[in-house]
Task: inverse folding
């Protein structure tokens, strides 16, 4: 209350408004326009991650530049409109912009401030904090449920602190410069940098965190000695450009020696080999902030490596496992002979070839004093190091990892003393086929495999997928979705993301590449083809198909040629530009400000450009209402609250000929002389539209949207203020927030056809995603049916109409009125797909009936 | 029946463009050579003719306009497709004046360039 009085006081202290309302309104409309441009640009940039576009670094820079300009303009405008009330926005803006600049220069911003993260707390989104090796291993444990070593990551934030506290940045840069100017041989530069790192001190705070994390792990495993393997987990290390062997690993390191081992691993970033290797690969100098993995040592009984495809003869459809006794290091580095097993990739994974060699020595852990080689007892030397049971289990694990990471895998594993298989690492396997598949072999695929569908749909995520078709009838069926099948559904509903780890591909009849499912499919690299119109009726449940989303083609059967070809393609996330776009979008796209009543709904709470945009828009609407309703009215406007039978808290601001008569006690609908506004209200109050739902509705959701508007009658009027209409006799601009739906309408209707336009923008709330996508589909369908040009950006629908005569335009505004009245409950009513056509028909019928007496209606409200 | 493979030269100083285009076009049956330096590409067109040339416009050294003039001067049959991140009406006009087959603004979809290429290919085959 105090706050409210303070604000009212402020308003009266302001100088009397001398700026004509039309100028203020011009600012407001400009804000709306910028707001829309920004949201579209953000959605488009996100779309680029689908892999379906070719873009370069220039594009990313240009887009960021455009977005920055638009956001800056928005902030200038809102401050202009509010007399610098939100000057704090500049601070948030500069902070975000600075971050974006840093990212554009190729630097990695650690997404967290933690120096240390246990594996249980690591998710895919934290890859810039923990590096590929840590992130992938953590996912293998948490998402796939496979056994991994207990461990934690020392993050890139820790690296930055280590680097800056020892002033390494300047010193290293100076050495690199010398080398670039040929004043220092590369090798010498590398040794110099390594020496600097060895001489540096691990910051006390970091040391404390490392000890604490290691201590927690060893306490949870009292039976083991607190010794760790310390390995690198650098950027780009885990993909195809595998740095295998480039960076140092320290084995069996006692807890107290971890800081020293940390330095050793970090120093290996600058081994001459690593420096040269990075120069050859697409890794920028700024990208090499290293995260380090600390994993509890496993006193392995046996260890080995598995290739999920035979890298030399992939067409044999076999997987290859090599193993020996003891700890893995000499096996990985090829220092001791290993047993070799070749298995069928297909279940039940028949063992096709076995070569058991004599294994005389193996590596063991020597307490906590490192590692050493030891003789193998005679009777075990010629015994196979893996059992048949273990081989089959490993094969299953290999295929599971391949499915999850979408490429053939090179897996390191250990068998612990309890005979459990523990995955130590999984990375992409480079297939070295003597002859990569020849392109012309691929042009004739249609002759070998029947084409079931071609040239239809849009690529949400590029890629090749094979598997049986699984057609979704009801969302609840998702529980039964089988591993490796291709999900075929009517809608690209976000619900489907639940099976992202099982599905090898997605096909939908309807769906947008900017929706949630597309985003998730990209994140997990699951090929996805949306908007095929009729895949659900064309494909048969259980039928084996191959999906090529890039070529918009679906083949019958498994087209192995396409898979082999795709294995040769560098995955897009291995490319610098994709990593860059993804990083930069993190500062642009996420929305953290939802409800204006939340405590973070402040300039300081804005963390992304999207947040800033949302904040400015909300405050712009509020301000227009403040200025014209709560404040003594502008002399060239009239304003009042609509008094209506329906719970719609709407402030009307008349800029010329839109209202008639006295309005001290509010404006009655019949006083409205604005033709577009009249028509909209007529649509909204059409019998049965507003309260069509009295029957079988989910009362909770209904009430939540109702109370949000109704309750405000009894509370502070200031709190109402988000429904605004600026009207004149021929014009209406509406900003509506009904429940969680947000609608903008801008319409101008005159006798001059060329001037007529309707703009409709609808975005949906935080309700059940499936119903939301049904609602979007219905809106799209009905609006297109009535000649609107529809565009969809994620959850946003934008519909435009121009150049029709007044009568037809009014007809369409009536439809928009119907839709507003109707959609506020649509989410709860869209219980099944069938409802879409039901409501589509219902709306058409209403339109037809109203159209007949249209001329009677609009000139005389009520 | 075996028909001759259509040959395509791609020149763009941003390596990602070739890196992405090559596998995608090879899959469609084209024979692809890629270059990130216009000097190297110039050298290559002294040695052989390509059916189709795809080039960026703005590059260090010999720029795309010069390169396409060189290509068209040597082999008037070669169809040139221009891809550029700085699309303006003037550059588009100039490209078409120089006999360019089509003009694509970056970023573009893989499907879009594939469509342009197959139109160029059809034109070549109908000669």
Result:
């Amino acid at each position: 209350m105090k706050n409210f009085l303070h604000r009212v006081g402020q308003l009266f202290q302001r100088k009397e408004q001398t700026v004509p309302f039309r100028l203020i309104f011009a600012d407001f409309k400009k804000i709306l326009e910028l707001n829309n441009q920004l949201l579209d640009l953000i959605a488009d940039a996100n779309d680029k991650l689908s892999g379906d576009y070719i873009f370069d670094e220039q594009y990313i820079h240009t887009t960021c530049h455009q977005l920055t300009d638009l956001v800056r303009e928005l902030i200038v405008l809102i401050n202009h409109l509010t007399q610098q009330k939100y000057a704090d926005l500049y601070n948030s803006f500069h902070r975000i912009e600075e971050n974006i600049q840093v990212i554009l220069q190729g630097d990695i911003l650690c997404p967290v401030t933690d120096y240390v993260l246990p594996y249980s707390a690591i998710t895919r989104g934290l890859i810039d904090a923990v590096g590929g090796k840590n992130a992938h291993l953590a996912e293998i444990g948490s998402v796939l449920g496979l056994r991994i070593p207990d461990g934690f990551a020392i993050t890139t934030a820790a690296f930055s602190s280590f680097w800056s506290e020892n002033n390494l940045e300047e010193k290293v840069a100076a050495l690199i410069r010398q080398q670039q100017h040929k004043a220092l041989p590369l090798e010498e530069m590398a040794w110099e940098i390594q020496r600097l790192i060895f001489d540096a001190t691990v910051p006390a705070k970091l040391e404390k965190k490392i000890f604490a994390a290691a201590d927690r792990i060893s306490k949870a495993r009292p039976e083991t000695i607190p010794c760790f393997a310390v390995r690198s987990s650098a950027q780009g290390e885990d993909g195809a450009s595998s740095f295998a062997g480039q960076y140092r690993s320290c084995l069996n390191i006692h807890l107290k020696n971890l800081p020293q081992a940390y330095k050793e691993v970090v120093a290996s970033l600058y081994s001459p080999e690593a420096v040269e290797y990075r120069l050859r690969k697409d890794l920028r100098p700024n990208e090499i902030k290293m995260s380090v993995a600390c994993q509890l040592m496993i006193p392995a009984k046996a260890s080995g490596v598995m290739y999920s495809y035979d890298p030399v003869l992939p067409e044999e459809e076999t997987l290859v496992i090599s193993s020996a006794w003891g700890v893995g290091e000499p096996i990985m580095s090829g220092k001791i002979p290993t047993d070799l097993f070749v298995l069928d990739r297909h279940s039940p994974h028949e063992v096709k070839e076995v070569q058991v060699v004599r294994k005389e020595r193996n590596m063991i852990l020597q307490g906590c004093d490192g590692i050493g080689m030891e003789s193998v007892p005679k009777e075990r030397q010629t015994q196979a190091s893996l059992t048949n049971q273990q081989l089959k289990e490993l094969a299953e694990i290999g295929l599971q990892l391949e499915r999850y990471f979408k490429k053939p895998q090179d897996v390191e594993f250990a068998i612990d003393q309890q005979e459990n298989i523990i995955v130590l690492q999984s990375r992409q396997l480079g297939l070295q086929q003597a002859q990569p598949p020849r392109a012309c072999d691929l042009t004739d695929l249609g002759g070998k495999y029947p084409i079931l569908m071609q040239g239809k749909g849009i690529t949400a995520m590029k890629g090749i997928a094979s598997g049986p078709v699984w057609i979704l009838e009801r969302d609840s069926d998702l529980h039964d979705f089988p591993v490796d099948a291709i999900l075929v559904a009517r809608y690209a509903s976000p619900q489907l993301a639940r099976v992202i780890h099982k599905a090898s591909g997605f096909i939908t009849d309807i769906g947008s590449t900017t929706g949630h499912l597309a985003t998730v499919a990209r994140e997990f690299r699951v090929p996805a083809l949306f908007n095929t119109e009729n895949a659900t009726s064309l494909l048969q449940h259980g039928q084996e198909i191959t999906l090529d989303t890039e070529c918009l083609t679906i083949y019958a059967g498994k087209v192995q040629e396409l898979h082999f070809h795709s294995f040769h393609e560098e995955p897009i996330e291995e490319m610098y530009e994709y990593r860059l776009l993804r990083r930069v979008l993190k500062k642009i796209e996420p929305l953290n400000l939802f409800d204006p009543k939340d405590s973070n709904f402040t300039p300081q709470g804005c963390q992304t450009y999207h947040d800033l945009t949302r904040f400015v828009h909300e405050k712009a609407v509020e301000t227009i209402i403040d200025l014209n309703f709560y404040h003594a009215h502008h002399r060239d406007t009239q304003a009042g609250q609509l008094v209506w039978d329906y719970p719609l808290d709407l402030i009307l601001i008349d800029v010329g000929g839109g209202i008639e008569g006295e309005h001290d006690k509010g404006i009655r609908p019949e006083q409205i002389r604005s033709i577009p506004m009249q028509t909209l209200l007529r649509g909204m109050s059409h019998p049965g539209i507003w309260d069509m739902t009295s029957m079988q509705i989910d009362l909770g959701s209904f009430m939540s949207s109702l109370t949000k508007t109704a309750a405000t009658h009894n509370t502070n009027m200031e709190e109402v203020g988000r429904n605004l209409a600026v009207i004149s006799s021929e014009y209406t601009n509406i900003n509506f927030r009904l429940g969680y739906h947000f609608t903008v309408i801008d319409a101008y209707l005159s006798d001059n056809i060329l001037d007529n336009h309707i703009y409709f923008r609808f975005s949906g709330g935080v309700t059940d995603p499936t119903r939301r996508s049904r609602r979007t589909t219905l809106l799209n369908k009905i609006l297109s049916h009535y000649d609107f040009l529809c565009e969809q950006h994620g959850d946003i629908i934008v519909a435009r109409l121009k150049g029709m005569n007044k009568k037809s335009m009014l007809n369409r505004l009536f439809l928009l009125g119907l839709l507003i009245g109707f959609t506020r409950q649509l989410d709860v009513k869209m219980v099944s797909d069938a409802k879409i056509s039901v409501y589509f028909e219902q709306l058409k019928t209403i339109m037809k009936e109203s159209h007949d007496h249209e001329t009677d209606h609009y000139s005389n409200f009520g | 029946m075996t028909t001759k493979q259509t040959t395509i030269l791609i020149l763009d100083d941003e390596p990602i463009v070739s890196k992405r285009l090559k596998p995608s076009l090879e899959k469609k049956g084209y024979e692809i050579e890629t270059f990130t330096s216009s000097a190297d590409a110039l050298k290559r067109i002294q040695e052989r003719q390509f059916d189709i040339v795809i080039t960026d416009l703005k590059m260090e050294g010999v720029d795309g306009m010069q390169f396409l003039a060189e290509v068209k001067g040597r082999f008037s049959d070669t169809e040139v497709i221009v891809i550029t991140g700085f699309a303006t009406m003037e550059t588009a006009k100039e490209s078409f004046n120089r006999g360019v087959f089509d003009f694509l603004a970056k970023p573009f979809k893989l499907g879009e360039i594939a469509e342009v290429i197959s139109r160029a290919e059809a034109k070549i085959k109908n000669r």
